Amino acid sequence: MVAGPEGPANRQRIHHAPGDRWFAEDRPIRQVHADASMFVGGLRALLLQSLHPLAMAGVAEHSDYRGDPWGRLQRTSTFLAETTFGCAADAQRAVDNVKRIHTYVHGVAPDGRWYDASDPHLLEWVHIAEVDSFLLAYQLYGAAPLDKAGRDGYVADMAVVATALGVPEPPRTEHELRERIRAYRPELRGTAAARDAARFLLLTPPLPLPARPVYGVLAATAVAMLPRWARLPLLLPYAPPLEATVTRMAGRVLVGSIRWVMTPPEHHSEQELEPGRTA
């Protein structure tokens, strides 16, 4: 569902194509984006992004997230893989394709304001919501959380992609990221479209019944990572004691299980023997 039917072929192309990469193998962006915590971080990012009325209007009016949610996820995951791990030519091609699509995404929001997906201000909001979510998810559920230098490095790495997409001055340190999110807060609010999207993502995803309990844990873990100011507009619950214990533990078990499944069999024994590494 995440990689799509062309997942194996894309993986081969992205990881083994010759040529320079935007990011060296030791860069934090590679560490974070290769980890299973991205599943939780991605869902949290979608919820946070929906709080900007103009960004949400673009999604509601131009994205087929209800009719083809897995297709949208597959395209997003492929973009992240290409820009993070792919050769420079493929990374640039992926960015150019997104910029081309953005030229068709514009209109008038329900509140009467004009929106344009190519607007650098909206691009930056989408970007910082992703960076904040991916980084937080990795710090809470990743295999080897980053130190301060690593966290700043991750924000700086993501700024390379944001700049290529058209964000003039994206944050490049963790502190700048926090300040930028704070600066956007007066613009954020819960709209009917945002709450509708949250209900779809959290309560009625197109999944077979056996998979829904597992997805429920994933959804609860993503919601628990949202700050209170982001939950109230979406009418999401807030229960810190429960989230700090039961939800956090369930999230660690789930993400650890996904990581184990995603790890090639020949590396399982290495993970189990390596001190300080979560399975």
TrEMBL record:
Lineage: superkingdom: Bacteria
Species: Mycobacterium bourgelatii
Name this polypeptide is given: ER-bound oxygenase mpaB/mpaB'/Rubber oxygenase catalytic domain-containing protein
Pfam families xrefs: MPAB_Lcp_cat (PF09995)
Span of domain ER-bound oxygenase mpaB/mpaB'/Rubber oxygenase catalytic: 31-253
Transmembrane stretches, start-end: none
One Gene Ontology term of the molecular function aspect: oxidoreductase activity
